[in-house]
Amino acid sequence: MSEESRKERRVLVAVDESDESMYALSWSLKNIIFQNSSDTLILLYVKPHHHDAYATFDSTGIMDDPQTPGHVLSPEASAAIKKYSQDVVDCVLQKSKRMCKDLENVKVETQIESGNPKDVICEMSRKLNADLLVMGSHDYAAMKRAFFDSVSEYCSQNVKCPVLIVRKRKPYAGSGN
Amino acid sequence: MSEESRKERRVLVAVDESDESMYALSWSLKNIIFQNSSDTLILLYVKPHHHDAYATFDSTGIMDDPQTPGHVLSPEASAAIKKYSQDVVDCVLQKSKRMCKDLENVKVETQIESGNPKDVICEMSRKLNADLLVMGSHDYAAMKRAFFDSVSEYCSQNVKCPVLIVRKRKPYAGSGN
Fold this sequence. Notes:
Chains A, B: This is UspA domain-containing protein. Two copies of one chain form a homodimer. By secondary structure, chain A is α/β, with parallel strands linked by helices.
């Protein structure tokens, strides 16, 4: 299809602090998004639950009142952890936006959400009306299946739009055989 | 990235007789492959085992000798089934190539293999040095997980290059909520 006849697309890229996610964004910029298209690129960062793990120290669930019985972390420690969590988000999104700086005409938007990444990514694909979801993938499939939920697997089964899973390519052993 | 600076890519599209696979090819032609690129588009058809199901009627495994004891199908029936199987392949590849007829400069190649589709698709991605594998996906995930191996799930976990899974998009229920 010619460049001119392409419709405006909304490409959602799930980014996080992993190399795999940055590689997926980089690959998309080279292969999916083009400088002079009218695409919208949406960088989605989902703060996973472990970013809020300190909340488990607070048996009351009331984080803003250090006087509440059961509050274990000092206000300073809570604030420091919150700041670190926000710094990670800012750092990832700044890095992602720098990678997109050469795009002309393409609109680049950022979106920060909290929750279980696999659920939030699926939900945001729907809410943001994405035409394509791009995700990185770690290359430790066996370990991942044994110990973790696979976010990319879950999303590829549950998101309704096309899903591009970008795995960092390694040289094939025995290539050419 | 600008159109000029893109490197030649080898895009492997797994095609079969399903609407989902034709939709995946169509989506790729609109979104991944561009007319004046130097991409190579490889249309891969994998004859699944059930195409050769008639072989199970032959307890000897010697299909070419109708005199061999245990041969149940007549030579005519075997030939008819073989011809039907080949007709399906030809029909899918002809339809796929017609869909690509407007591509200029893009090289379109076809490849026919036999075996278990998920294994063959992974193997051919490696052998053909694909930069991207595109697959369709049926939208009956729950049933598929219960009764069938999912080819697209398996490949997305085992192929080393980026994998694009194209699901036929349906209007979202409750969109905009």
